[in-house]
Amino acid sequence: MKPMVQQAQEAAAYIGKRSGHRPVIGLVLGSGLGVLAEEIRHADVIPYEEIPHFPVSTVQGHAGQLVLGELEGQTVVAMQGRFHYYEGYGLDQVTFPIRVMKDLGVDRLIVTNAAGGINLDFGAGDLMLIQDHINLMFNNPLFGPNAPEWGVRFPDMSDAYDPSYRQLARRVAEDQNVSLREGVYVGLTGPTYETPAEIRMLRKLGGDAVGMSTVPEVIAARHAGIRVLGISCISNLAAGILDQPLSHDEVMETAEQVKPRFIRLVKGIIKDIRSV
Ligand code: R1P
Protein backbone atom coordinates (compact mmCIF):
# COMPACT_ATOMS: atom_id res chain seq x y z
CA MET A 1 0.00 0.00 0.00
CA LYS A 2 1.20 3.51 -0.78
CA PRO A 3 2.08 5.77 2.17
CA MET A 4 -0.88 7.87 3.36
CA VAL A 5 0.96 11.10 2.50
CA GLN A 6 1.12 10.00 -1.12
CA GLN A 7 -2.46 8.72 -1.08
CA ALA A 8 -3.68 12.12 0.14
CA GLN A 9 -1.69 13.89 -2.58
CA GLU A 10 -3.19 11.63 -5.24
CA ALA A 11 -6.71 12.22 -3.92
CA ALA A 12 -6.14 15.99 -3.89
CA ALA A 13 -4.70 15.92 -7.40
CA TYR A 14 -7.77 14.03 -8.63
CA ILE A 15 -10.13 16.55 -6.96
CA GLY A 16 -8.09 19.39 -8.44
CA LYS A 17 -8.70 17.92 -11.89
CA ARG A 18 -12.43 17.42 -11.30
CA SER A 19 -13.06 20.93 -10.01
CA GLY A 20 -11.74 24.38 -10.83
CA HIS A 21 -12.52 25.61 -7.30
CA ARG A 22 -9.53 26.12 -5.01
CA PRO A 23 -11.01 25.89 -1.50
CA VAL A 24 -9.51 27.59 1.54
CA ILE A 25 -12.26 26.70 4.00
CA GLY A 26 -13.22 23.12 4.82
CA LEU A 27 -16.55 22.04 6.25
CA VAL A 28 -17.34 18.71 7.89
CA LEU A 29 -21.09 18.26 8.10
CA GLY A 30 -22.47 16.07 10.86
CA SER A 31 -25.44 13.71 11.00
CA GLY A 32 -28.43 15.33 9.32
CA LEU A 33 -26.50 18.58 8.79
CA GLY A 34 -25.31 17.84 5.25
CA VAL A 35 -28.06 20.07 3.96
CA LEU A 36 -25.75 23.06 4.39
CA ALA A 37 -23.86 21.87 1.30
CA GLU A 38 -26.97 22.55 -0.77
CA GLU A 39 -26.33 26.27 -0.22
CA ILE A 40 -23.00 26.07 -2.06
CA ARG A 41 -23.11 27.84 -5.41
CA HIS A 42 -21.48 26.74 -8.67
CA ALA A 43 -21.05 23.41 -6.91
CA ASP A 44 -18.91 20.56 -8.15
CA VAL A 45 -20.06 17.36 -6.46
CA ILE A 46 -17.70 14.41 -6.26
CA PRO A 47 -18.92 11.11 -4.74
CA TYR A 48 -16.39 9.65 -2.33
CA GLU A 49 -16.19 6.37 -4.21
CA GLU A 50 -14.79 8.19 -7.24
CA ILE A 51 -11.88 9.74 -5.32
CA PRO A 52 -8.75 7.59 -5.15
CA HIS A 53 -8.06 6.12 -1.68
CA PHE A 54 -11.14 7.81 -0.14
CA PRO A 55 -13.26 5.79 2.32
CA VAL A 56 -17.02 5.63 1.72
CA SER A 57 -19.86 6.71 4.02
CA THR A 58 -21.97 3.99 5.61
CA VAL A 59 -24.14 5.97 8.05
CA GLN A 60 -27.68 7.24 7.41
CA GLY A 61 -27.67 11.03 7.12
CA HIS A 62 -24.17 11.09 5.61
CA ALA A 63 -24.53 11.42 1.83
CA GLY A 64 -20.94 10.51 1.01
CA GLN A 65 -19.78 13.23 -1.33
CA LEU A 66 -17.50 16.24 -1.49
CA VAL A 67 -19.03 19.52 -2.56
CA LEU A 68 -16.74 22.29 -3.80
CA GLY A 69 -17.92 25.78 -4.63
CA GLU A 70 -18.75 29.24 -3.33
CA LEU A 71 -20.46 30.03 -0.05
CA GLU A 72 -20.84 33.60 1.19
CA GLY A 73 -18.12 34.74 -1.19
CA GLN A 74 -15.62 32.12 0.01
CA THR A 75 -14.36 29.05 -1.79
CA VAL A 76 -15.20 26.01 0.29
CA VAL A 77 -15.02 22.26 0.24
CA ALA A 78 -17.70 20.47 2.24
CA MET A 79 -17.81 16.87 3.35
CA GLN A 80 -21.42 15.87 3.01
CA GLY A 81 -20.90 12.88 5.24
CA ARG A 82 -17.98 12.00 7.47
CA PHE A 83 -16.31 8.80 8.62
CA HIS A 84 -16.55 7.37 12.10
CA TYR A 85 -14.27 5.03 14.01
CA TYR A 86 -17.20 2.68 14.74
CA GLU A 87 -17.70 2.12 11.00
CA GLY A 88 -14.55 0.05 11.21
CA TYR A 89 -12.18 2.61 9.72
CA GLY A 90 -8.85 3.28 11.35
CA LEU A 91 -8.43 6.83 12.65
CA ASP A 92 -5.95 7.47 9.84
CA GLN A 93 -8.79 6.76 7.39
CA VAL A 94 -11.31 8.73 9.45
CA THR A 95 -9.02 11.75 9.18
CA PHE A 96 -7.85 11.13 5.61
CA PRO A 97 -10.19 13.82 4.17
CA ILE A 98 -8.62 16.42 6.47
CA ARG A 99 -5.21 15.57 5.00
CA VAL A 100 -6.67 15.88 1.52
CA MET A 101 -8.25 19.24 2.39
CA LYS A 102 -4.86 20.49 3.55
CA ASP A 103 -3.32 19.42 0.24
CA LEU A 104 -6.12 21.27 -1.55
CA GLY A 105 -5.12 24.50 0.23
CA VAL A 106 -7.56 24.54 3.16
CA ASP A 107 -6.27 26.40 6.21
CA ARG A 108 -9.57 26.87 8.10
CA LEU A 109 -11.98 24.15 9.12
CA ILE A 110 -15.51 24.22 10.45
CA VAL A 111 -16.47 20.89 12.02
CA THR A 112 -20.06 20.18 12.93
CA ASN A 113 -21.80 17.27 14.57
CA ALA A 114 -24.96 16.01 16.17
CA ALA A 115 -24.32 15.41 19.87
CA GLY A 116 -26.13 14.35 23.01
CA GLY A 117 -26.48 17.02 25.68
CA ILE A 118 -24.81 16.19 29.01
CA ASN A 119 -25.15 19.67 30.48
CA LEU A 120 -28.49 19.79 32.27
CA ASP A 121 -29.08 23.37 31.14
CA PHE A 122 -29.08 22.29 27.49
CA GLY A 123 -32.14 21.31 25.49
CA ALA A 124 -32.70 19.39 22.24
CA GLY A 125 -32.22 21.71 19.30
CA ASP A 126 -29.63 23.92 21.01
CA LEU A 127 -26.49 24.86 19.10
CA MET A 128 -23.23 24.59 21.05
CA LEU A 129 -19.97 26.24 20.20
CA ILE A 130 -17.21 23.75 21.00
CA GLN A 131 -14.80 25.29 23.47
CA ASP A 132 -12.59 22.26 23.85
CA HIS A 133 -12.78 18.48 23.68
CA ILE A 134 -12.00 15.39 25.70
CA ASN A 135 -10.68 12.41 23.74
CA LEU A 136 -12.19 9.24 25.21
CA MET A 137 -11.73 7.15 22.07
CA PHE A 138 -8.65 5.54 23.61
CA ASN A 139 -6.93 6.07 20.30
CA ASN A 140 -5.39 8.96 18.40
CA PRO A 141 -5.06 9.50 14.64
CA LEU A 142 -1.40 10.37 15.15
CA PHE A 143 -0.43 6.97 16.58
CA GLY A 144 2.43 5.44 14.60
CA PRO A 145 5.36 7.01 12.80
CA ASN A 146 4.93 10.75 12.39
CA ALA A 147 4.72 12.14 8.85
CA PRO A 148 6.79 15.35 9.05
CA GLU A 149 5.18 16.54 5.80
CA TRP A 150 1.94 16.73 7.78
CA GLY A 151 3.06 18.12 11.09
CA VAL A 152 5.13 17.80 14.24
CA ARG A 153 5.36 14.74 16.48
CA PHE A 154 3.82 16.43 19.52
CA PRO A 155 1.19 18.96 18.43
CA ASP A 156 -0.01 21.60 20.87
CA MET A 157 -3.73 21.31 21.65
CA SER A 158 -4.14 24.20 24.07
CA ASP A 159 -6.21 26.26 21.65
CA ALA A 160 -7.54 23.47 19.46
CA TYR A 161 -10.74 25.43 18.89
CA ASP A 162 -9.47 28.81 17.75
CA PRO A 163 -10.30 31.55 20.31
CA SER A 164 -10.72 34.23 17.60
CA TYR A 165 -13.14 32.01 15.69
CA ARG A 166 -15.11 31.40 18.87
CA GLN A 167 -15.30 35.13 19.40
CA LEU A 168 -16.51 35.55 15.82
CA ALA A 169 -19.16 32.84 16.29
CA ARG A 170 -20.46 34.53 19.44
CA ARG A 171 -20.68 37.85 17.62
CA VAL A 172 -22.50 36.35 14.62
CA ALA A 173 -24.94 34.51 16.90
CA GLU A 174 -25.66 37.71 18.79
CA ASP A 175 -26.22 39.66 15.56
CA GLN A 176 -28.62 36.95 14.41
CA ASN A 177 -30.34 36.76 17.76
CA VAL A 178 -29.55 33.06 17.91
CA SER A 179 -28.85 31.46 21.25
CA LEU A 180 -25.46 29.76 21.20
CA ARG A 181 -24.42 27.49 24.05
CA GLU A 182 -20.78 26.84 24.71
CA GLY A 183 -19.10 23.76 26.08
CA VAL A 184 -16.79 20.78 26.00
CA TYR A 185 -17.39 17.97 23.50
CA VAL A 186 -16.52 14.45 24.59
CA GLY A 187 -15.63 12.00 21.82
CA LEU A 188 -16.39 8.31 22.42
CA THR A 189 -16.14 5.48 19.93
CA GLY A 190 -19.82 4.46 19.83
CA PRO A 191 -21.74 2.97 18.15
CA THR A 192 -23.77 2.31 21.31
CA TYR A 193 -25.13 5.43 22.90
CA GLU A 194 -23.83 5.99 26.40
CA THR A 195 -25.34 4.49 29.53
CA PRO A 196 -26.79 6.78 32.23
CA ALA A 197 -23.80 5.91 34.46
CA GLU A 198 -21.38 6.88 31.70
CA ILE A 199 -23.20 10.18 31.23
CA ARG A 200 -22.93 10.94 34.96
CA MET A 201 -19.21 10.18 34.72
CA LEU A 202 -18.76 12.40 31.65
CA ARG A 203 -20.55 15.25 33.42
CA LYS A 204 -18.14 14.93 36.35
CA LEU A 205 -15.23 14.96 33.91
CA GLY A 206 -16.36 18.31 32.55
CA GLY A 207 -18.22 17.27 29.40
CA ASP A 208 -21.20 19.24 28.11
CA ALA A 209 -22.00 17.22 24.98
CA VAL A 210 -21.08 13.77 23.73
CA GLY A 211 -20.69 12.20 20.30
CA MET A 212 -18.76 9.70 18.20
CA SER A 213 -16.83 11.98 15.85
CA THR A 214 -15.02 15.32 15.56
CA VAL A 215 -12.12 14.68 17.98
CA PRO A 216 -9.92 12.75 15.48
CA GLU A 217 -10.63 15.30 12.71
CA VAL A 218 -9.69 18.19 14.96
CA ILE A 219 -6.48 16.45 16.07
CA ALA A 220 -5.48 15.89 12.43
CA ALA A 221 -6.38 19.48 11.52
CA ARG A 222 -4.32 20.93 14.37
CA HIS A 223 -1.45 18.60 13.45
CA ALA A 224 -1.62 20.13 9.96
CA GLY A 225 -1.77 23.70 11.29
CA ILE A 226 -5.40 24.20 10.21
CA ARG A 227 -7.43 26.57 12.41
CA VAL A 228 -10.67 25.06 13.69
CA LEU A 229 -14.16 26.11 14.68
CA GLY A 230 -16.58 23.48 16.02
CA ILE A 231 -20.35 23.51 16.38
CA SER A 232 -22.50 20.79 17.92
CA CYS A 233 -26.19 20.46 17.32
CA ILE A 234 -27.64 19.09 20.55
CA SER A 235 -29.93 16.50 19.10
CA ASN A 236 -31.23 15.07 22.37
CA LEU A 237 -30.41 14.99 26.03
CA ALA A 238 -28.08 12.10 26.76
CA ALA A 239 -29.10 8.87 28.48
CA GLY A 240 -30.59 9.02 31.96
CA ILE A 241 -31.69 12.68 31.79
CA LEU A 242 -35.08 12.08 30.25
CA ASP A 243 -36.94 8.84 30.61
CA GLN A 244 -36.77 7.85 26.94
CA PRO A 245 -34.58 5.69 24.72
CA LEU A 246 -32.18 7.31 22.24
CA SER A 247 -32.33 6.71 18.51
CA HIS A 248 -30.59 7.90 15.37
CA ASP A 249 -34.03 8.79 13.93
CA GLU A 250 -34.46 11.31 16.72
CA VAL A 251 -31.00 12.71 15.97
CA MET A 252 -32.01 13.20 12.34
CA GLU A 253 -35.36 14.74 13.27
CA THR A 254 -33.78 17.33 15.55
CA ALA A 255 -31.20 18.19 12.89
CA GLU A 256 -34.10 18.83 10.53
CA GLN A 257 -35.66 21.32 12.97
CA VAL A 258 -32.36 23.07 13.70
CA LYS A 259 -31.49 23.34 10.00
CA PRO A 260 -32.52 26.96 9.30
CA ARG A 261 -30.74 28.34 12.40
CA PHE A 262 -27.70 26.17 11.81
CA ILE A 263 -27.36 27.18 8.16
CA ARG A 264 -27.74 30.89 8.94
CA LEU A 265 -25.17 30.76 11.74
CA VAL A 266 -22.54 28.86 9.76
CA LYS A 267 -23.02 31.07 6.71
CA GLY A 268 -22.65 34.17 8.89
CA ILE A 269 -19.41 32.78 10.31
CA ILE A 270 -18.03 31.83 6.89
CA LYS A 271 -18.68 35.31 5.58
CA ASP A 272 -16.20 36.80 8.05
CA ILE A 273 -13.89 33.94 8.95
CA ARG A 274 -11.13 35.11 6.62
CA SER A 275 -10.93 38.44 8.41
CA VAL A 276 -10.06 37.04 11.86
C1 R1P B 1 -25.45 8.84 16.30
O1 R1P B 1 -26.77 9.21 16.18
C2 R1P B 1 -24.56 9.45 15.25
O2 R1P B 1 -24.76 10.89 15.23
C3 R1P B 1 -23.53 11.56 15.46
C4 R1P B 1 -22.74 10.54 16.26
O3 R1P B 1 -21.35 10.82 16.25
C5 R1P B 1 -23.09 9.24 15.59
O4 R1P B 1 -22.35 9.04 14.42
O5 R1P B 1 -22.99 11.78 14.18
P1 R1P B 1 -21.96 12.94 13.79
O6 R1P B 1 -21.01 13.08 14.92
O7 R1P B 1 -21.29 12.50 12.54
O8 R1P B 1 -22.77 14.20 13.59
Automatic annotation (TrEMBL):
Known function: The purine nucleoside phosphorylases catalyze the phosphorolytic breakdown of the N-glycosidic bond in the beta-(deoxy)ribonucleoside molecules, with the formation of the corresponding free purine bases and pentose-1-phosphate. Cleaves guanosine, inosine, 2'-deoxyguanosine and 2'-deoxyinosine.
InterPro entries: Nucleoside_phosphorylase_d, Nucleoside_phosphorylase_sf, Pur_Nuc_Pase_Ino/Guo-sp, Purine_phosphorylase, Purine_phosphorylase-2_CS
Coiled-coil regions listed: none
Quaternary structure annotation from Swiss-Prot or TrEMBL: Homotrimer.
Protein known as: Purine nucleoside phosphorylase
Domain Nucleoside phosphorylase, first and last residues per copy: 25-271
Origin species: Desmospora activa DSM 45169
EC number, UniProt record: 2.4.2.1
The protein's enzyme class: transferase
GO molecular function list: purine-nucleoside phosphorylase activity
A GO biological-process term: nucleoside metabolic process
Alphabetical UniProt keywords: Glycosyltransferase, Phosphoprotein, Transferase
Taxonomy, superkingdom: Bacteria
Residues binding a purine D-ribonucleoside: 194, 236
Positions bound to phosphate: 31, 62, 82-84, 114, 213
Family as reported in the entry's similarity comment: Belongs to the PNP/MTAP phosphorylase family.
Catalytic activity: a purine 2'-deoxy-D-ribonucleoside + phosphate = a purine nucleobase + 2-deoxy-alpha-D-ribose 1-phosphate
GO CC annotations on file: cytoplasm
Pathway: Purine metabolism; purine nucleoside salvage
